Structures are given as C-alpha cells and as structure tokens.
Amino acid sequence: MHELSIVSGVVDSVTETLVAYPGATVKEVRLRIGALASVVEDSLQFCYGLAIEGTPLEGSVLVVKTVPVIAHCEPCRQDVEIVSLQSFRCPRCDEPVSDLRQGRELEIESIEIDEVEETA
Amino acid sequence: MTTRIVELRRGILKKNDELAAGLRERFTTAGVLVLNLVSSPGTGKTAFLERTLRELRAGGSRAAALVGDLETDNDARRLAASGAPVRQINTHGICHLEAEMVSKHLDGWELSDLDFLFIENVGNLVCPSSYDLGEKIRVALLSVTEGEDKPLKYPTLFNSADAAVITKMDIAEACGFEHDAALRNIHEIRPGIRIFETSAKTGAGMAGWLEYLAEERAARKA
Question: Using CA atoms, how far apart are residues B138 and B115, in angstroms rounded to an integer?
C-alpha cells in the first residue's frame, strides 16, 4: 500500500506547478502508470480523495492511463507488447525478452486547470 | 475563466529517483557494491544476510548493512552479532524503504572503507519495487515454503531484480518444493537472471553466492 506515498508525490508536484498559475483551480490530474509499476488504480483513487483535501487540488478528478509493457525483441529486431505479465516472451517468436522499453512509468502527464482571467 | 492543459511529463517519484541517482554516484565513487534485498516477510532475508556478513568478514571483506523494518531493532541486533557495522531503519508503518531513509542512515560511515553494503528492505513484495535506493544489484529472495508460483504472482518485483536467491533449501524436500518449476517461473518473469539456491542454516549454496559477490565487486572496482 504505497499508493498514499505516490499520491502525496502527485499533490506536491502539482502544487508546485500551480505557483505559476495564481488563482487557478485544478479540474483534472492525468497520470501515466505502467502496467509493471506495482500500482493499483482503485487504491490510487481512494488515496487521492484523502490526499487532496485542504490542498489546491481539492475537487479535482484523477485520470489514470495505463501504459502497456513494451520490450525489445532482439531476434525480431522490433519492439513488442508484452500482454501477459506472467511470461516475458516475444508474442511473435516466443523468445524470452529482458530489454524493457516501457511499462514502469509513474508519471504526471498533464493537468487541466481553470485560469482566472486577468482584469484590465 | 479559461481552461488550459498544462503538460508536466514529470516522474511522480522524481525526488526519490534524483536522491537515488546521487547515492549511486556516491557508492560508485567510494567503490562499494550496494545490494538491495527484497522479499516477503518470513522468507529469511535476515538469516541469509547474517550468514553472508559472517562469511564475508571471515574471508577478509568489509561489509555493512542497513536493515529496514516497520518497528523494532531486532534484526539489526541479530545482524550486528556478525561483527559488521549495522544500522536499523524504522519506517514506522511505511511499507518500503526510500532513498532519503538510506541517505540519512549513512551519516558518519566512511563508504570507501567498505567493500559491500547490504540494504535489507521491509518485508514486502510489492511496494519496494517502485523505489530506487541507488543500489547496483537488486536481489529478490524466495523461500521454498512460499510456493513455486510466487514469481508469477509478483512479476513487478521479480522482473526488476538482478539476481534471485532461493532460501531454506534445507527443508525443500519436506515442503515438497518443486525445484524445476520454481526456476522456470523465475526465468519466465526475468529471463537470464542468476539464481542461487541456498540454506543459511547448513551453508549450502553460499559458496556460489559469495563468488558472485566477489565477481560483482571486482567488476565495480575495475
């Protein structure tokens, strides 16, 4: 259950970003989470609700995009998607693959904010 | 009101990752080989590490350990009996070690006086996999009592490991441990990984493990 630590990292990072947008309200926070990142979305959502209380992120929605595992297959000379996490083999040639190119991401992709119009 | 999308593309654990990168640089400069030991609670990390520290010291190597636990310093006291410098990290409920905890507990240690530094993580097969501690080698441990399919159940951790250790081999037969299935499952998740079958009690398999440590340490020095 390290989702609370993860979510706290998100809150800190977004709060830092908001300094450049005074008065803005956060509508959405979008994450990219790798399928191999050991993070459960339900727990993330639950912890998010708790972590944003009393912060500038209060009222915002967390959107989680899962990123598939991609490995490089040497014999096939191309990147392939690993669909089952129980077998790290190339789906084309069935050779074991160890050179992962994607799938461990824990990333804040973007935030959607409402900015206050500047009054002239 | 105007709505705007602000692209961040920022790692959530950026702070930890940066600290870990700094630690890795310190370890490399000091020439100390750092290993992060990860397993479920009860796999026998501490017993395995006790034996490793004792044998390394007997062979003239300088080894130290940091040991993570939610509460108590029982493990640190056990490990200190080997004569090696040992420090306990109490996480007070946090289920994994973070780079900052490691960094804080290194104060006053001259890293260049060490050949090996072992970091025994909190017993947990999920959370520690996301946190880089600056280690060179991540070791996943699995005991014969846990079931051969454990690597399949926890692929995120086993896939991130550089070496695997099977512990408690002395009771493998009594447990009906299916040796070939265990090796096959580990390799299915982490193709090509080195696997050591050990018993901290009898010392079986320790020679191969110590040889591996010596090789990795030599590679680090070079």
Answer: 17
B129 to A38: CB separation less than 8 angstroms, yes or no? yes
Report CA Rg, chain A.
18
Residue A71, pLDDT score: 97
Q: Is the whole model's pTM more than 0.90, yes or no?
A: yes
Distance CA B43, CA B39 (A): 6
Of the candidates A79, A69, A59, A81, the residue with the CA atom closest to the CA atom of residue A33: A69
* ipTM reported for the complex, 2 dp: 0.88
For B192, counting Cβ atoms within 10 Å of its Cβ (0-12 exposed, 13-18 middle, 19+ buried), the class is: exposed
Cβ count within 10 A of residue B85: 18
Q: From chain A, which residues contact B within 8 Å (Cβ)? A: 1-2, 5-6, 9-10, 13-14, 17, 21, 24, 27, 31, 36-39, 85-89, 96-98, 100, 104, 106-117
